[in-house]
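Colleagues,

Please find the record for the two-part complex below.
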Amino acid sequence: MNRQPLTYKIIIHVVMMLVVAAIILPFLLLFLSSITEEATLLTYGYSFFPRKVSLESYSYIFRSSDKILGAYGMTIAITVVGTLLNITLSTLMAYPLSQRNLPFGKIMTFYVFFTMLFSGGLVPSYIMWTRYLGVKDTFWGLILPSYLVSAMNVLMIRTYFRNSIPEALYEAARIDGAGQFRVFRSIGLPLGKPILVTMGTFAALTYWNDWMNGLYYIAKRTDLYGIQSVLNKMVTDLQFLTSGTMSGYASAELARVPSTGVQMAIAFVAILPILVMFPFLQKYYQKGIALGAVKG
Amino acid sequence: MVQQNRMPRKKGFAERYGKWLPLYVMFIPGAIYLFINNYIPMAGLIIAFKRVNFSIGILNSPWAGLSNFKYLFATNDAWLITRNTLLYNLAFMVCNTIFGVLFAIFICDSAGKRVKKLYQSIILFPFLMSMVIVGYIVFALFSMQYGIVNKSILPALGKSPVYWYNEAQHWPAILTFVNTWKVVGYGCLIYISSINGIDTELYEAAALDGANKWQQIRHVTLPALVPPIITLTLLAVGRIFYSDFGLFYQATRNSGMLYSTTNVIDTYVYRGLVTQGNISMSSAAGFYQSIVGFTLVLSANLVVRKVSRENALF
């Protein structure tokens, strides 16, 4: 496999370099735009070669601490609470399904699996969460809808508990007289750690990146917005203001919407944790993808 | 007498299921969540047949028969969003498969462990980004006033700026590119793990038989990739009536002038429900999506079961 014709080597090299450039350059553009001076940005547009560098955008973020740093704090809170609840519920749900002899185990698995096949869609969900469960404009509106338990994750954890932990270990613990819950705590949990960390990573990224719950379920309480929702809201506001026929009023309002450079700076700050954690994230993503590929 | 008969049976039941009780208890919280978050909305699909009046509740609202659907399908929108959804998904399936496989083969044939790892990491990176961020990147490229394409690239080529966010015809290509850029890494990693599972002796044997690189790819690598390709395609076919709402909402900045080529069922339902508050039309479109989507998952799986049992999802 190592002896390859030269032309093939060259093709690989060129193509992969292009791929790498296509992925990295846009992020670089985002970053460079965030450190370009506003006036330069407005004249020359976003550019890989900023004519004048300025950290004004970042200092704006820190000065407006209540708004943007607050949103950052919200994102962290949402991610922590969401991930903990998600992984707890998913694990508790997956473990019983992994036990081969559990009566009604198949029906219970189907109960989980069916949610992957059929969905009621946005309209009934939205009406239920907002009209009947009252999550609109609450912190729980950002945590509960859609993401708390994913059937896919539950089934992946189940498969791991079933196939990667030897049945004999469960048996041995039972013979020692341990109850079901005890077996779960002393065998399942410690040995299932790799999959739990992987699924926890998936959940954390879902909550970190989420802006849709903010879009659907937060209307007035914009103080509950996470960083992604703030980014989303800025786009909507700008459009609302620039599209308006009420130009005089709009231009005054427009001045209050963070400028083009600041938007890019906020976007970059939202990416930063993913960038820093990337080696860790990608390790677990690759594990998760490999596990998902082996369907169970 | 009767009681005597009953006692042992009761004991049998407790003996049979009692020891499993803790497991059932563990299952319950998640089951309740899925019941609320997933099962109740399934039943909620009936609102597509109702004239909803919240003051008397959904169940008491009068039936509307098929009038919501008549209303939906009388407009040109129904056809438009169906066409857009299907064509985009087809384009995404083709691009994700072709480029995913191509990059997987190239990465596996790259020299050096470190280089391979680096490529694998980089190709996954966009997959971890939120669509909002992707929307900002697309904006940095295509913004009509400040975008690098209009401000730097087109002038350098001696061309005049293009009003990207006002002209719908550009977006099928842009969105297909953006989607591939974002998600190709996911499939790619799955293909890589399949390629890594191929016995290297197969390549050596092929080389001994005088197979060149292309023939080795054609006869050794590609056959090994058929199962994951089928699985991923099957998943995609099952979701062909659904779109990534974020892609079509964020990358286009929800620009109304682009709807003719960028409105898909998911964005249509969202706008109908949240922006316009038109429950009858959006619920009809949502019902249509749920039912056709469900039928497609089942049929796609049925076909695969017939062709190769082991690749079916269920």
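The CA atoms of residues 138 and 174 of chain B lie 9 Å apart.

Comments are welcome before we finalize the supplementary table.
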